[in-house]
Amino acid sequence: MPLKLIRGDITKLECDAIVNAANSTLLGGGGVDGAIHRAAGRGLLNECRKLGGCKTGEAKLTKGYRLPCRFVIHTVGPVWRGGDNGEEDLLRSCYRNSLSLAADNGCESVAFPLISSGVYGYPKDRALRVATDEIVRFLSGSEMLVYIVIFDKKSFDIGEKLFGDIEAFIDDSYASDAYSYTLERRRAPVMMDICLEEAAEEDEKIDRRNKKLYQAAAPSFAGASADKLSASVKKEKRAPKNTLEDELNNLDESFSEMLLRKIDEKGMTDVECYKRANVDRKLFSKIRSDRLYRPSKTTAIAFVIALELPLEEAKNMLMKAGYALSRSNKFDIIIEYFIVNANYDIFEINEALFKFDQNLLGV
Ligand code: ADP
After folding, report:
1. Where in the chain is the domain with CATH 3.40.220.10?
2. Taking the complete model, does pTM exceed 0.90, yes or no?
């Protein structure tokens, strides 16, 4: 099952376990720790008192008390001291230890705040990268739904350079789109006139030819009846060769068929593919077993990214599910940006979509 980046208050989340960014006393503090203790009530503090604290990088489990989750996993993140003091390793072990504790206690869903990224000062972009890395590594061998909960949008400013680039890309695309739109509008009436003229000419040619044919075959008939015959010949000429049923029985390769073909061509396994797409097994089996299954746009794109398709193939596969990448909405432009730059890291793409308040890929 996949990783989901969401915005919100972790104390409100209904899942098997939430993770607390605690301090080593485990007796409550500020930030997310304070919020969790307030929402859980005194029972949590009483249980925490019996745990004898917790070392940095380690994790301990309690019940959830008045929280909507079954368990709280308390982990102690490192204080940021410039990055050369083992902070990253310690932060990684917070995620690893919390996840293995969750798995040992049968949790199917667990939610993390961005550990250490508040009072402990770990830069948010790096904290998010560590979180994503460790969770994805864990999910490659386990089935669990893992949330990263981002609380504070304003202070959440990740990957300045990457986002600067995307912003420029969005601006350029909007600009070039606006430009071609104006051109199109200017050209449109002229082009329409030309088309009408051409069509009229073509009709006249057909009329003349039909009249000639008719007169050659039946010289005693002329005038109005020639016109009538000419009209009926025209109609016949335009009648479709296939019936609608024939056409419907002759569908192109579907989205699901192309997906399975591409998985084979890339030498991937199904599991590799749906994990890379951040899609869960159930949804994948649905798509696999129904050749006409129509996935949501975010799911369709998630598979395009998992398969690392270049832009044209990506557009082709999306079209099979009934979608396009337009240049007039941010979501599509962000996706195109990553594909054009051959960056198929779905979690990085989701960070970018998240930053620009767009729907995320996968489940
Ligand atoms: P730390 O001491 O590990 O830095 P903090 O609680 O100060 O822990 O902050 C960790 C992260 O948790 C910060 O990014 C902060 O914005 C976030 N946070 C604070 N309250 C909540 C909450 N109710 N739900 C989710 N995240 C929260």
Report:
1. 3-157
2. no
Distances (CA, A) of 213 to 95, 99, 133, 202, 239: 83, 83, 76, 17, 20
Mutate to test the pocket of ligand 1, among 115, 129, 149, 151 (most ligand atoms within 8 A of CB): 151
Task: Please name the fold of domain 3-157.
Answer: Leucine Aminopeptidase, subunit E; domain 1 (3.40.220)
Q: Could you give the residue ranges of the DSSP H alpha helices within 218-345?
A: 224-238, 244-248, 255-265, 270-276, 281-289, 297-306, 311-320, 330-340
Q: How far is the CA of 33 from the centre of ligand 1 (A)?
A: 7
Residue given tokens 């301090």 in the structure block: 23
Structure tokens at 148: 């990263």
How confident is the model at residue 168, as a pLDDT? 67
SS3 113: strand
Half-sphere exposure of 137 (CA within 13 A, CB side): 13
Question: Which regions of the chain are under pLDDT 50?
Answer: 155, 177-203, 206-207, 214, 218-224, 226, 229
For ligand 1, atom 10, name the residue with the nearest CA. 118
Q: Which residue has the tokens 């990457």?
A: 162
